[in-house]
Design goal:
The chain has 378 residues and is α+β, with helices and mostly antiparallel strands. The protein has 2 domains: 203 residues, Sandwich (Jelly Rolls), CATH 2.60.120; 140 residues, Malonyl-Coenzyme A Acyl Carrier Protein, domain 2, CATH 3.40.366. It is built from 10 helices and 17 strands. The strands form 4 sheets. It has an 8-stranded antiparallel β-sheet with strand order 1-9-6-11-5-4-2-3, with helices on one face. Strand 13 and strand 14 form a beta hairpin. The structure holds succinic acid and cobalt (II) ion. Succinic acid (SIN) binds next to strand 10 and strand 11.
């Protein structure tokens, strides 16, 4: 990792002193960074069905939010100032965006959400708010004034179509220029106002709420827990109130439900599948003319292999998780697949064990991995 990215701090020091604790402003985090796409390329993305985009306008303290996909026409009728376009998951479309995210490898991939890119002309922004995410706000083209506050008052403006703090009291303020970066822990109030035509790159890290995890774990259990037997009452006693639920029924069902058990293996499997589950709008495209497994194996040993930009991959114990599925693998295969999960690519995928090749081939047929080195098309 380049030492400038964290202003000369080592990742270890950053994690100890700042991560989830306090903001960090880094001047020249990525010296010379001008951005990864132009404003019109961002607009093109916002017009795609498979991208999530929002257009936020602000007029006399009245906020309006529209959701994409947009048409080019939507952008020709905008005011000159005070609007912003935000596109999520830009890393699904640009290899350079994935490379940018990989620079943040000092935070585990299990915490990563996406790269969101915004464009705003002067005065544009999303208003004062706080996020439940950790975020690195990296400035691309132009300038943005960031005001931040550790305020406890989290009351929001009522009836606004987006989260706007009712009483934002800025405590610190900076103007960020290309390559500068501001890290904010979750819940830290902030307000970014474009000073000129500006683009901001938000590297966002998710932290699911315990309620969300509980709901999802219960869904996982539905598919993985088996409780044998069936309710029975051969000794049914005559009830004077047939409309009542008997104590026998409550206790028999209670005993059956008490058999629902889970252990660390279930928790690992749940976390791996849940965190790698693609977002609902994400689809993979299988190769139009797939090569045979033999040819695939030859090609990856020469040209390498990379994850599709939309793929999410994690590892834990015997399991490799890819796009919402768990794949138990042997020790040798695990070593190379773990490298793929860490780097999103295997530059020269030769000498792989046959189990690993068979699995990679299956993923290739699903469109989860591609032949070739990062940034190059096969
Ligand atoms: C923006 O890029 O305008 C908004 C980023 C944020 O405040 O989280
Ligand atoms: Co924010």
């Amino acid at each position: 990792m380049r030492t400038e990215l964290l202003g000369g701090l080592s990742p270890r020091t950053f994690l100890r002193e700042y991560w989830q604790k306090k903001p960090l402003l880094v001047r020249g985090a990525l010296p010379g960074f001008q951005g990864l796409l132009t404003h019109s390329e961002l607009i093109d993305l916002a017009c795609r069905e498979d991208a999530q985009s929002r257009l936020i306008t602000q007029k006399n303290a009245i906020w309006q939010v529209r959701h994409g996909p947009f048409t080019l026409d939507s952008f020709s009728r905008l005011p000159r100032k005070k609007w912003t376009l935000l596109v999520q998951d830009v890393n699904h479309f640009l290899p350079a965006a994935r490379d940018l995210l990989l620079q943040f490898n000092f935070i585990p991939h299990s915490r990563l959400d996406d790269l969101m890119v915004s464009y705003a002309p002067a005065g544009g922004g999303v208003g004062p708010h706080f996020d439940s995410y950790d975020v690195f706000l990296l400035q691309g083209m132009g300038h943005r004034c960031w005001q931040i506050s550790a305020q406890r008052d989290k009351r929001l403006v009522m009836d606004a179509p987006l989260k706007i703090l009712h009483d934002f009291k800025p405590e610190q303020e900076w103007i960020l220029e290309s390559g500068d970066m501001l890290y904010l822990p979750p819940g830290y109030a902030h307000h970014g106002i474009a000073k000129d035509n500006c683009m901001t790159y938000s590297i966002g890290f998710r932290a699911p709420s315990y309620q969300e995890l509980t709901n999802q774990f219960l869904i996982y259990l539905q598919d993985h827990v088996v409780v044998e037997g069936m309710y029975c009452d051969p000794g049914l006693a005559l009830q004077s109130h047939p409309g009542r639920i008997s104590s026998d029924m409550v206790s028999q069902i209670g005993t059956a439900l008490g058999k629902i058990k889970w252990g660390p293996t279930d928790i690992e499997r749940f976390i791996g599948t849940y965190l790698t589950e693609p977002k609902p709008h994400v689809f993979f495209t299988p190769p139009p003319r797939p090569v045979t497994q033999k040819r695939f194996s030859d090609q990856i040993s020469k040209s390498g292999l990379r994850l599709d930009l939309k793929s999410r991959m994690l590892c834990r114990g015997k399991n490799v998780f890819l796009n919402g599925e768990a794949y138990p693998v042997g020790t040798k295969a695990r070593r190379s697949l773990e490298k793929l999960a860490d780097r999103h690519a295997l530059p020269i995928a030769g000498g792989l064990d046959t189990g690993a090749v068979a699995l990679l081939y299956q993923w290739y047929l699903y469109g989860y991995v591609e032949i070739g080195k990062p940034g190059l098309t096969a």
